[in-house]
Specification:
mainly alpha, two-stranded antiparallel sheet, membrane, transmembrane, Transmembrane protein
Length: about 200
């Protein structure tokens, strides 16, 4: 995992993600209004879902480029995590069979079983490379992922509030904007991991 680091310059990528998130949110809210812009399966949530799909694709592609080892394990685990976030964001509207299934408890149960099956499949390499992965985390090399996690935690804390300073839908607007920022960070990390796996960022 020694190659999976982020130079100080990566902060610029994070700032770009923040700027893009703010611009996209401003355009969405300007075009659709606060309520529709932050609605379930609205423009921001749709963008978030596509960013998570992109993260899954790049992480799986990174895993495909790697031999067995901690980086490959981390790429697969990252793809699974991005998929979990994607399923969390999926809230289809309508009364169709698929929409009912995705909103049902059965779907969450099947999701949990699928994650458990993947975890069982990965348990042998996880035990083998746990030390290297843990060392990578402790050394702070995963700080962009921690940053994305912190943004998501703040977003989750805002979820459920109906107004801020008397402005309806403002909490939802803030929540969706922060989620867009967090998923943009995850996508940026996934792209970097793929480029590292392809040897585009050789490091000692």
């Amino acid at each position: 995992m020694q190659n999976y680091t982020y130079p100080t310059a990566f902060w610029r990528a994070i700032l770009v993600c923040a700027l893009i998130s703010l611009v996209v949110a401003a355009v969405a809210y300007g075009a659709f209004g606060l309520e529709l812009g932050s609605a379930e399966e609205g423009p921001l949530e749709t963008l978030q879902e596509w960013m998570l799909v992109g993260a899954c694709v790049f992480l799986l592609a990174a895993a495909r480029e790697q031999a067995e080892g901690a980086p490959r394990l981390a790429s697969i685990a990252g793809a699974v995590l991005a998929a979990v976030f994607l399923l969390r964001e999926l809230e289809p509207v309508g009364d169709g069979t698929l929409a009912h299934y995705v909103r049902s408890e059965s779907f969450r149960l099947h999701e949990a079983l699928a994650i458990l099956a993947i975890a069982l499949f990965m348990i042998r390499p996880l035990v083998r490379y746990a030390g290297e992965c843990l060392s990578w985390l402790i050394q702070g090399s995963a700080w962009p992922l921690f940053a994305a996690g912190a943004v998501l935690l703040i977003s989750d804390a805002i979820d459920g509030h109906h107004s801020v300073m008397g402005v309806a839908w403002l909490p939802r607007m803030i929540e969706e904007t922060m989620e867009t920022f967090a998923y943009a960070i995850i996508l940026a990390v996934a792209i970097r991991w793929y480029r590292i796996a392809c040897g585009l960022f050789p490091q000692p």
